[in-house]
Specification:
By secondary structure, this protein is α/β, with parallel strands linked by helices. The chain has one domain: Rossmann fold. The protein contains nine helices and ten strands. Strands 6-7-8-3-9-10 form a six-stranded mixed sheet, with helices on both faces. A four-stranded antiparallel sheet has the order 2-1-4-5, with helices on one face. A hairpin with a 2-residue loop joins strand 4 and strand 5. It is globular. The N terminus is likely disordered.
Length: 258
């Protein structure tokens, strides 16, 4: 495994995963995963479809229980938390779903208000309005505030989904296939937004993708998931340009040659 960059060893790890295993019947998805996410880092988890990338972040968020191993998020062992403690931890984790997960019957404003009203008490109307306006400004879509999700493009829905996540000011962001189904220009906009979110809000992020352009653009570090384990970790160049691993070469050629 490629050695993690030295400077990360002097930064706080906000997620620590050790010997993580999970199977579904006879399908062994994660086979002993070790991974750290450091404060202020964009970490890309890269792998082909069906390799367990999305399973990993669902375990981090406490949505799935592993068969073995530990996951510590912000110093807390996720598997040991009760439901109240887990709910409190989840407020510090922003989850950007592949589908954007907007409520079709709500306007953009109502979609962004929903997590505030549900999770933060004693907010005035002006507090809510200000938070919504700031979140929309962060993703460059202030003009969509009264639109319905059906009136938005795929890229706009992705941005609104990220805005709804940011409105609770999470410390950690989990992005699940953020560029899936988007054209190259819109994908570039989403990649740039992920970098802007990190710089503006000092978030620590895991980005799940099989898109190498996304990985190269947003990843401070890449962790390649192959056969249920992280076989290679490092910068994009360390993982690919210096790689003699035939599976990594095939992945690279599929994205950039074919």
């Amino acid at each position: 495994m490629t050695t993690v960059k030295t400077e990360n060893k002097q930064r706080e790890a906000v997620i620590v995963i050790r010997d993580l295993k999970i199977s579904f019947g006879d399908l062994h998805v994660l086979r002993g995963v070790d991974l750290d996410l450091y404060q202020g880092e964009n970490l890309v988890v890269l792998g082909r479809s069906g390799t367990g990338k999305s399973v990993l972040i669902k375990i981090i968020a406490g949505l799935l229980q592993p068969d073995q191993g530990t996951v510590k998020v912000l110093g807390q062992d996720v598997d040991q938390l009760n439901s109240r403690e887990l709910d409190a931890l989840r407020l510090k984790i922003g989850f950007s779903f592949q589908s954007s997960a907007l409520y079709d019957s709500m306007t953009v404003r109502e979609n962004l208000e929903f997590p505030l009203i549900r999770n933060v008490r004693n907010l005035s109307r002006s507090d809510i309005d200000k938070a919504v306006e700031e979140a929309l400004a962060d993703v460059g879509l202030s003009q969509t505030i009264n639109q319905m999700p059906s009136e938005l493009s795929g890229g706009q829905r992705k941005r609104i989904g990220i805005a709804r996540t940011l409105i609770l000011k999470p410390q950690i962001m989990l992005y699940d296939e953020p560029t899936a189904g988007l054209d190259p220009i819109t994908s570039t906009e989403i990649n740039n937004l992920i970098n802007e979110v990190k710089e503006r809000h000092n978030t620590s992020s895991i980005i799940i993708t099989h898109d190498l352009t996304c990985a190269k653009t947003v990843g401070d570090r890449i962790a390649m998931l192959l056969d249920g384990r992280f076989e290679r970790q490092g910068t994009f160049e360390e993982v690919f340009e210096d790689s003699n691993d035939e599976r990594a070469k095939q992945f690279y050629e599929y994205n950039f040659v074919n």
